[in-house]
């Protein structure tokens, strides 16, 4: 990306350049004693150190860091660092998937998770047609009202509406501080078991598990800090915090279409870049006796957001602000939304089967982000029959980050156990 310095009103633009692979494929010189004594920590420390290293803007903004030593999960790892200006999470993960092949059949692209089938249409009778029209009109009114409310809240959040301070809220300047990236493997079968038992979606389960994990962490932290007399303080009920949720607004294409996006000679309708909208997603910090109540409440929250065009509005309004007032004005609105919310949350769907990357079998995919003013970012990445939970946390604010990671695993275990009694 270059900028014409002679023109003060010039906009940054992309130009083609010669790529020197030695600048982008990096083999770090790590201490052999550290990598052999605790390889998982050595990898975690190195990847976390990347969050404080600026990228060289005089070259293409991507790097492959090859960590060629065995860990508890794999024989080696590759940390791929890409600037967010190149694309959003969906397009970048799609690029990775389009470069992989099925481990079962290296001649074909991997299979993606099956898309849900739409419900059957109404019958042909007059009563069925009238009922369908009435339902459509009501759904349209609900959509318009929810969108109006969500847009008003989003604008207020960008300007002044701030979450109350909790242990999860970042301090001023948190975007410049070191982030620690840690992950654990969850069972996708367990998530689907809960989904089927409660007749909800995978995302509903993940939202509920996140709420349960944050509640466990919060009440443990506050009980330890507020307990000055020897008596445990009564847990505070129903604290609301909000997350910035990034939503892909593209129509979901097939992987073959995504693979063709890399061929510049083809006129593709699916575009790279950042095509995402924002949703302000509420989470509730509360202790429920029934673990499934977190999932039910998460489903209600997700269903409410599905009946809104908040993400579409934020995407198009962001583009309009850029055109009318410039990128700095749009960045200021985005920054206000991040600083006034507590955390970031997202989930991405990966291949539904094991894949290979140029002959190398992929054990797991763990995605995350840094550089935004949140002290906590929660990502879920599905791959084959697992879900990788990845936390990006402020290294100073969360010295017990691994305990928070364990809270997620324990919350899913309790939810899965409770769901077994429902069937």
What characteristics describe this protein?
three-stranded mixed sheet, 423 residues, alpha/beta, six-stranded mixed sheet
Q: Which regions are unreliable across 5 or more consecutive residues at pLDDT < 50?
A: 229-233
The major pleated sheet works out as: 6 strands, mixed
Percent of residues in beta strands: 15-25%
Return the structural class: alpha/beta
Strand arrangement, major sheet: 5-12-11-8-6-7
Name the shape in a single word: globular
- Radius of gyration (CA) equals 23 Å
Distance between the termini: 55 Å
Proportion of helical residues: 25-40%
Number of helices: 11
Order of helix and strand elements from N to C terminus: EHHEEHEHEHHEHEHHHEEEEEH
The total beta strand count reads 12
Mean pLDDT over the full residue set: 87
Structural commentary:
Mean pLDDT is 87; it is low at 229-233. The strands form three sheets. The protein has a six-stranded mixed sheet, sandwiched between helices. A three-stranded mixed sheet has the order 1-2-3, with no helix packed on it. The chain has helices at residues 32-37, 39-49, 89-98, 126-159, 188-198, 202-226, 255-260, 292-306, 310-325, 327-340, 401-420; strands spanning 25-26, 62-67, 77-82, 101-102, 179-187, 239-248, 276-285, 343-348, 355-357, 360-361, 376-383, 386-394. It is of the alpha/beta class.
């Amino acid at each position: 990306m270059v900028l014409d310095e002679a023109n003060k009103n010039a906009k940054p633009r992309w130009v083609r350049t010669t790529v020197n692979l030695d600048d982008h494929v990096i083999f770090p010189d790590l201490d052999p004693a550290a990598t052999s004594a605790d390889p998982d920590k050595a990898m975690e420390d190195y990847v976390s150190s990347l969050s404080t290293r600026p990228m060289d803007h005089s070259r293409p903004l991507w790097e492959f860091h090859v960590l060629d030593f065995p860990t508890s999960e794999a024989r080696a790892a590759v940390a791929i660092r890409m600037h967010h200006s190149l694309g959003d999470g969906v397009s970048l993960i799609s690029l990775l998937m389009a470069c992989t092949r099925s481990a079962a059949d290296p001649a074909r692209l991997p299979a993606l998770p099956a898309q849900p089938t739409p419900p059957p249409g109404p019958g042909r009778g007059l009563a069925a047609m009238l009922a369908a029209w009435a339902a459509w009109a009501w759904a349209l009114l609900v959509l318009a009202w929810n969108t109006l409310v969500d847009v008003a809240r989003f604008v207020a959040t960008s300007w002044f509406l701030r979450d109350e301070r909790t242990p999860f809220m970042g301090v001023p300047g948190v975007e410049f501080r070191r982030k620690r990236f840690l992950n654990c493997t969850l069972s996708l079968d367990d998530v689907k078991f809960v989904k089927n038992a409660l007749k909800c979606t995978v995302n509903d389960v993940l939202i509920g598990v996140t709420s349960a994990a944050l509640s466990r962490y919060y009440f443990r932290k506050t009980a330890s800090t507020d307990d000055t007399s020897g008596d445990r303080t009564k847990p505070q009920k129903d604290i609301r915090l909000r997350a910035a949720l990034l939503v892909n607004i593209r129509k979901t294409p097939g992987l073959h279409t995504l693979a063709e996006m890399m061929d510049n000679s083809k006129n593709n309708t699916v575009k790279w870049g950042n095509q995402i909208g924002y949703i302000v997603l509420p989470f509730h910090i509360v202790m429920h006796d029934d673990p499934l109540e977190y999932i039910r409440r998460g489903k209600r929250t997700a269903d409410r957001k599905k009946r809104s065009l908040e993400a579409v509005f934020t995407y198009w309004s962001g583009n309009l602000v850029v055109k009318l007032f410039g990128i700095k004005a749009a960045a200021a609105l985005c920054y206000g939304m991040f600083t006034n919310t507590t955390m970031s949350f997202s989930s991405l769907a990966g291949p539904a089967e094991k894949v290979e990357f140029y002959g190398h079998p992929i054990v797991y995919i763990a995605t995350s982000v840094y550089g935004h003013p949140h002290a906590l970012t929660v990502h879920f990445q599905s791959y084959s029959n697992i879900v990788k939970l990845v936390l990006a946390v402020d290294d100073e604010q969360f010295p017990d980050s691994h305990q928070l990671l364990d809270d997620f695993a324990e919350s899913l275990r309790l939810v899965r156990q409770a769901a077994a009694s429902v069937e």
